[in-house]
TrEMBL record:
GO molecular function, one term: DNA binding
Name listed for the protein in its UniProt record: SOS-response repressor and protease LexA
Organism of provenance: Heyndrickxia coagulans (Weizmannia coagulans)
Pfam families cross-referenced by the UniProt entry: HTH_26, Peptidase_S24
UniProt entry keywords in alphabetical sequence: Hydrolase, Protease
Gene Ontology terms describing biological process: proteolysis
Length: 212
């Protein structure tokens, strides 16, 4: 009984998929299974269709189900290619989301991030402590900071206060000639910046992650 061309096409597509996934060629497959390379080539070109015993042999070889070879693959719409290029972003100490904490720029490791998902610039992570920036930034979150000396009004920044001896994470509000460091949590009071209470912005909070 002749096999419909559609079934041959499905088999051919699945074989190509599994060859690519395994990182081998049709020549490798033919050699490993002791099958004539022309036979494998005809399967992959959808010229012929494997016999049932050969389908089982292929399924055993690829460690998959027979249906993975004989049925049409449906790729989930929410699957996207994963970047193979990775950047290692340093983790530097802690930063307060509440009362400022003493600056401890102690290096504690790296976080691996897909390179194409990172913004440009000099980047590092700080661990948020406290809840003054909740619900925007939760306690314990790893906050990605891009090193820069200033931010736009209403952006969140890593800020040094009290003569650069303490650090905090706050939303910078610029009103006329007044700068306020605003918490997102209404239970906390803003910090007013003036000559007697100067601050220094050391970076912009880009995003945060939190491990489960």
């Amino acid at each position: 009984m002749a096999v419909a061309q559609e079934l041959k096409d499905i088999m051919a597509d699945n074989l190509k998929h599994h060859l690519k996934k395994k990182g081998i060629t049709q020549t490798d497959l033919a050699r490993d299974l002791n099958i004539p390379e022309m036979t494998v080539s005809n399967w992959i070109r959808a010229v012929t269709y494997p016999r049932p015993d050969k389908i089982q042999m292929l399924a055993d070889y690829f460690h998959c189900k027979r249906s993975d070879l004989t049925e049409k693959r449906i790729e989930p719409e929410n699957i996207y290619p994963v970047s193979k290029e990775v950047s290692y972003v340093p983790i530097l100490g802690e930063i307060a989301c509440g009362e400022p904490i003493l600056v401890e720029e102690n290096f504690s490791g790296y976080r691996a991030e897909p390179k194409d998902g990172l913004p440009s610039g000099d980047l590092y992570y700080l661990e948020a402590k406290g809840n003054s920036m909740e619900p925007t930034i939760p306690d314990g979150a790893m906050v990605l900071i891009r090193k820069q000396p200033d931010v736009e009004s209403n952006e969140i920044a890593a800020v040094l206060v009290n003569g650069d001896t303490e650090a905090t994470l706050k939303r910078v509000r610029k009103q006329n000639n007044v700068i306020l460091l605003m918490p997102d949590n209404p239970e906390y009071d803003p910090i007013i910046v003036n000559e007697k209470n100067p601050v220094r912005i050391i970076g912009k909070a880009v995003r945060f992650t939190r491990d489960l």
